[in-house]
Amino acid sequence: MAAHVPYILYDNILNDGTLTASSEATDKPVSQSVNFLNWNYWEASAAGAAYVQVDAGAGQTLTADCIAVCFGQNVGGDSGTVLIQHSSDAATWNTLVSELMPERNYFKTFTSATNRYWRVTFTTSTVAVKIPVICLGQKLQLQGLRTGFVPPNLATPFKSYTTESETGNILGRSIQREPIAFNIAVDTLDESWIRTNWLPFLNHAAQKTFFFAWSYDDNPTESVFARVPDGNIDKPTFGTRIHMSFNLSCLGEY
């Protein structure tokens, strides 16, 4: 079995500076792409290249090594591309990623960089770029998932319902799509790691969605746009006298 490396992305540097876009359709501002809600979105004013850009401000920098975009984006379906760049002056740009977008969730790691300006450009040919949620920042790497983990992308994302007659004859069946339930469970963690890394994430997850890639190295396309069920933030516990563990219940879509 492969040694799967799981990542979480939630720390969005696009919220840590002045955010702008190359264009915005009426009532579809770029701010709607960074609120972690996938029912609203940023939309460009026309087909072609469109970008989101963040400026950390004079004398300030931002660091990133990962990007994620949730399902509902239309770039992949239009055979479009994504370009990730950073700059010190917004004139000369350094390219980190340039590739085709998938049709559903997009999750990509790259060499860590630090700079004042960051830009993500999407290019389409027939439709105006539409992005529900984009997150650009530093990924949180987990040390390994507990035995028994069920990969979200291998789970069944629907329930079946059968209609029967009074005599027991099957009249028909229907299915209803629903979020996939899965657990993020990790053992034997240092208390210092929990305080430094996990607690800030829990504070975010209590209010907002996030991205989870359960096996990026071996299954880079299998990421989910996830949330924690209402009232179900599990607390870290001591599994031994010196090591801690956690088991976080999640719901996700891919």
Largest sheet: 7 strands, antiparallel
Rounded to an integer, what's the Rg over CA atoms? 20 Å
Order of helices and strands: EEEEEEEEEEEEEHEEEE
Q: Low-confidence parts lasting 5 or more residues at pLDDT below 50? A: none
Distance between the termini: 23 Å
How much strand? over 45%
Oligomer: single chain
Q: Estimate the mean pLDDT confidence.
A: 92
Shape: globular
Please work out how many helical segments DSSP would assign. Answer: 1
Question: Mind explaining what this structure looks like?
Answer:
By secondary structure, the protein is mainly beta. Helices cover 6% and strands 47% of the residues. It has one helix and 17 strands. It has one helix at residues 191-205, and strands at 7-9, 18-21, 42-55, 62-69, 81-87, 94-100, 106-115, 117-131, 134-137, 140-141, 158-164, 170-177, 180-189, 210-213, 223-227, 237-238, 244-253. Strands 1, 10, 13, 14, 15, 16 and 17 form a seven-stranded antiparallel β-sheet that branches. Strands 2-3-8-5-6 form a five-stranded antiparallel β-sheet, with no helix packed on it. It is globular, with a radius of gyration of 20 Å. The two termini are 23 Å apart. The model has no long low-confidence stretch (mean pLDDT 92).
In short:
With 254 residues, this protein is mainly β. The protein has 1 helix and 17 strands. Strands 1, 10, 13, 14, 15, 16 and 17 form a 7-stranded antiparallel beta sheet that branches.
